[in-house]
From TrEMBL:
<keyword id="KW-1003">Cell membrane</keyword>
<feature type="transmembrane region" description="Helical">
    <location>
        <begin position="84"/>
        <end position="109"/>
    </location>
</feature>
<feature type="transmembrane region" description="Helical">
    <location>
        <begin position="269"/>
        <end position="288"/>
    </location>
</feature>
<feature type="transmembrane region" description="Helical">
    <location>
        <begin position="171"/>
        <end position="195"/>
    </location>
</feature>
<dbReference type="InterPro" id="IPR014241">
    <property type="entry name" value="Cyt_c_oxidase_su1_bac"/>
</dbReference>
<keyword id="KW-0479">Metal-binding</keyword>
<feature type="transmembrane region" description="Helical">
    <location>
        <begin position="398"/>
        <end position="422"/>
    </location>
</feature>
<dbReference type="InterPro" id="IPR000298">
    <property type="entry name" value="Cyt_c_oxidase-like_su3"/>
</dbReference>
<feature type="transmembrane region" description="Helical">
    <location>
        <begin position="818"/>
        <end position="840"/>
    </location>
</feature>
<dbReference type="InterPro" id="IPR000883">
    <property type="entry name" value="Cyt_C_Oxase_1"/>
</dbReference>
<feature type="domain" description="Cytochrome oxidase subunit I profile">
    <location>
        <begin position="31"/>
        <end position="539"/>
    </location>
</feature>
<keyword id="KW-0812">Transmembrane</keyword>
<feature type="transmembrane region" description="Helical">
    <location>
        <begin position="363"/>
        <end position="386"/>
    </location>
</feature>
<feature type="domain" description="Heme-copper oxidase subunit III family profile">
    <location>
        <begin position="581"/>
        <end position="839"/>
    </location>
</feature>
<keyword id="KW-0472">Membrane</keyword>
<feature type="transmembrane region" description="Helical">
    <location>
        <begin position="705"/>
        <end position="724"/>
    </location>
</feature>
<protein>
    <recommendedName>
        <fullName>cytochrome-c oxidase</fullName>
        <ecNumber>7.1.1.9</ecNumber>
    </recommendedName>
</protein>
Amino acid sequence: MTQLDQSSKPSTDPDQLHDQFNEVWGNPRGWRALTIVNHTTIGLRFLVTGAVFFLIGGLMAMLIRTQLALPGYVLMEPEVYNQVFTMHGSVMMFLFAVPMMEGLAVYLIPKMIGARDLIFPRLSSLGYFCYLFGGIILLSSVFLGVAPKAGWFMYTPLSSSAHMPGVNSDFWLLGITFVEISAVSAGVELVVSILRTRTNGMALHKMPLYAWYILVMALMIVFGFPPLILGSILLELERAAGLPFFDASKGGDPVLWQHLFWLFGHPEVYIIFLPGAGIVSTLLPVFCQRPLVGYRWVVLGVLTTGFLSFGLWVHHMFTVGIPALALGFFSAASMLVAIPTGVQIFAWIATLWLGKPVYHVPMLWLVGFLIVFVCGGLTGVMVALVPFDWQVHDTHFIVAHMHYVLVGGMFFPLMAGLYYWLPHFSGRMPSVRLGRWGFWLVFIGFNTTFLIMHWTGLIGMPRRVYTYDTGLGWDLPNLISSIGSFIMAIGIGTILLDIVLHFRFGQPAKTNPWNADTLEWATSLPPSPYNFVSLPDITDRHPLWNDPDLPHSIARAEHSLKAIDHGRRETWGSDPLSGKVREVIHLPGNSWWPFVASVFLAVLCLSLLNKFYWVALIATVATLIVLFRWSWENGAHPAAAPDAQTQPGEPPLHSRTFDGPGLWGMGVTLLANGTLYLSLLFGWFYLWTVSPEWMVPEHSDLNGWLMLASAVLLTIGTMWMRLVPGRLRRGSGGQLMLNLGAITAIGAVQWAMLLWLLLTANLKVTETAHDAVVFVILAYGLIHCGLATILTLLQTLRVMYGYVGDKAPYEVVVVEQLWYYNLGVIWSAYAAIVLFPNAWGGA
């Protein structure tokens, strides 16, 4: 027995211990429910909200199919149809698919890896409210009659102010950006939680496959969503302030929007598919009652899919005039990604072949997934062939292909997972009869709708048309597709009825009702807010098959980390590779700060929509104040860790180490931030080399020497900042406050130099794309250098209050990362906007 085990012998009555845990972890009711940060509640909120958005998007789909059922039929006028078409795609892609999969992961991941919560609970809460408010803002445009109508991809120049002068496109740009912030925050949360909070002994090679899929999905969100966020910001700046990033007459290029959009858009297909595939890899072993064939091959396939997905974005741009060499490269890459996907499919088929599958309702959805997704994958390989893509591009063949991939790859596994985990949500079993009826109606209706749509596209029917003439051969196929859509809608209604009735009439579920192998079934049904009263050690990939009594021994507090008399919310902090416990992570409790911050962000979004820029400025300042106040209750603050002592034999609290979760959170956040910045540099060099009307000012007032001096000063501050953690490690942090104060002063001077550079550059930001991009690059550096200076100042104050020092050193290391990041930003910006133009011979 290890020292960790010896310190965890039961010493209190289990019932009394559960009551004590509920006092610390319990969720409040009434208005105070807005303060809940627990991952179980937040995950369920994501799922319920995503389901509501799905129903709204489905209603829009029914309006589209009704409009197209008969030739010449006019249910909606062209403008209304364009709004409905745009909103259907936007709602399904941005408000349903990704948030739904993220919500399920937020709910499941801590339970699967043996943790009590996600690592940044308040970030989860902020992400949910940003998602909710962003979705409400976007959907409100429908009721106001000003919904976006340029397509869910918002191609320029159609979405630019010259062609779309109202606020229609602004609702999309601001609302979607709001939602994307939520997605990225969830991505950061999931990456760090999976890597750093697994229970003792859960090494990477013992991790559930679902956790592998979610880890790759979250990393893809971190790298894939920032290009769209950047594109949305640039397009909104063009519409609101006239900065011509996509205006070809002023040196911009509308195709740049397509690059930024699809740098996000094609990885998003796999961001949606991978969690669905993770559900398949989780459920198949349960219903076949044997481990999945080829665990390591599947993990390698998932990693390869995530990597290759970032090299396919031009797959969607074959018809815009791409050079032949690029066409060949991206066509080959588009077909290459079928290999790791095929590895996973063969692993699933082999598991079915070698096991004894039991066809419960979740299993029906898995078989439906295999059929539908394989068909979608085959048509995907077809459109990867450039000549074929040229023929079917912008026809209903593409509509059918997208639905087979997205609905087959995401919706069918999601429904399998929903029926599988329903007992976890409610403690009751779903109805078998209604579940089977719902599956068959959806399966038949879906294939009736979209299978024939391939033929409709092959005979020439374009997408995004609100009506068509008779005699073109499209009449009967469209009628059949519309009938199929209503059959599918009836199936969705049956499933909803089943879910509603099961909460009232479902049979109570026993412990581990499916005889599953993963840890989420070791909790109570439904789970308590803290998941596990004690955290078990893990020795293999199938803990519940290895020890069927594990749910009961966990509840009897026979494992580790069961002390709660200190009043802290705790979970293990483990090594990213081996899963061995390294520290005790103390988690924040319920808080108003995430909700208040999201409200101010919503005010900022609404004021920008209405062009109340002074209100937007006030809302920005208020948001920053709230976020800085939120950050104050962290680390060694009494509200974060009222008692710094741990039990004998346990490792120290994370805030007393140099490797706390904040270090990892900052690192992953900077990866996302760096992706956005690299996308900005990509746009800069793209316009230099491609834009047909690129204009470089003959005389630039940009002071390159001042920028060089600013970069040198930032280098000095960063090197000084580097010395501080070293002194803390040696236990000689006596001059910490003085050092941080001096570094803050250097940062303030460097920021002032950068601000002066921007103010005196005399950039004509509305006349040339060149100056507009230079302005954004400098503003980006200015914002980040200012943020680093403020955070260093806060660290100085926290040293004065005793929250940072020799005994609580890790926050300084977190801020140090931002200084290093800013150093890379400023020097690369200097190279891009000062050195590169001179070398090119333009400035």
